[in-house]
Amino acid sequence: MKRDLLQQAYGAMRHDMRKTILTMLGMAWGIATVVLLLAYGQGFGNAINNIFESYGDRAVGIFAGRTSQQAGGNKAGTPVRFTNKDVELLQNVVPLVRHVSRQSDMSTTVQWGARSFSFTTFGVDPAVETIWNLGVDDGRFIDEQDNNSHAHLAVLGSEAKDKLFSGMPALGEYIRVNGVSFRVVGVLHPRMQEADNDINRVVYIPFNSMDTLQNNYYLGGIWLDFEGLDHNALTKTVRSSLAAEHGFKPDDERAVFIFDAQKQLSQFSIITLGLKILLGFIGTIPSPSAGSG
Length: 293
Known about the structure:
By secondary structure, the protein is α+β, with helices and mostly antiparallel strands. The chain folds into 2 domains: about 1-55 and about 265-290, no CATH class; about 60-260, no CATH class. Helix content is about 40%, strand content about 25%. The protein is built from 9 helices and 10 strands. The protein has helices at about 1-15, 15-55, 85-95, 130, 145-150, 160-165, 230-245, 260-285, 290; strands spanning about 60-65, 95-110, 115-125, 135-140, 155, 175, 180-190, 200-205, 220-225, 255-260. Helix 3 (about 85-95) packs across helix 7. The two termini are about 30 Å apart. Residues about 290-293 have low confidence and may be disordered.
């Protein structure tokens, strides 16, 4: 019986070979399209994961803003400003925190010999190497001794090194940052960047050395990473602790902005899933040739 069915099917296919070929092409097109589009969606998801991993997938950035609600004796619009006291507070009250780093940054003119460029200079604590998942290609990153001694040492982003030194070695050379001399002790591995993002055209110096360039009593931001999976509880504790310290309402999101890499990654995971579903649906739409004849 199976043999008879196969013979009938073969005869039908030979009877209208044009339609048979178009049908087979349509099926092949549909299968290939679904596979390729789903692979594209998976590739997009993998790219997002790689980007967050390269920047530190457990990094939490905390930045001061202005209050948008009246709280106690403070009116709306009151600026919130972080100091070293806030760093100590977070280290003491936030559970499962592994590393904490202060940040101070500014646009600077960086010179070596006759070469001069405008780069962002970051004053950071050594812990930011782990928090931001920085890789060192040459030399080393700044350490606690550098920070404590206010050492004039610098670590260059990969593109900053290329622009300043081209193919010349950078370690041990002195650069001038807004006219102040810093000795280069490290060069970073290139980081993933988008379009004109200048994340590789930066200079890192010890946070405590930033006071030679600008007043760093008030912090530009605080970065930390943590253990565990409950990032929502962590950011809630951060916000409520700072609210109690600075006298704003914990639900006032304009008073303090918190960048949570885990939250961002979970949101992109939802987008990736939706993209996969959409692309899979598009792939199931028959090609024009499949319906012709």
